[in-house]
Request: fold
Amino acid sequence: MQPRPSLGQRASVAPVCRVHRLNEETVNRLKPLLARTEGVATVFKALADDTRVKVVYALSEAELCVCDVAALIGSSKATASYHLRLLHHLGLAEYRREGKMVYYRLADPHVGNLVREVLRHLKKV
Reply:
């Protein structure tokens, strides 16, 4: 039995059809559905950073002030604020002011559910 190739090796020898035979019925049925994926990459780009995944996961559990987020991710308030601001600009987080405090929460709980699903997939929940 041959050893499995590494990820880089697998990418260079991916199997490809030797003939071109299009299943037009399937392609025509699925093509309109692809429009639904508009904007999905933005969510995954936001979650492509380990720190932001932690922030999203924490916000899925509770509304948090910037100081709380900084303490949770082990960073300065400026770094926590940067991540929260990015999540807000991407439409994934909302905030409210209460006096001198600013509290963040997820704009949509489905984003937190997405992180939990991945954790379940990785068997970490």
Observations:
- The helical segments are 7-12, 24-30, 40-46, 50-61, 66-73, 77-89, 109-121.
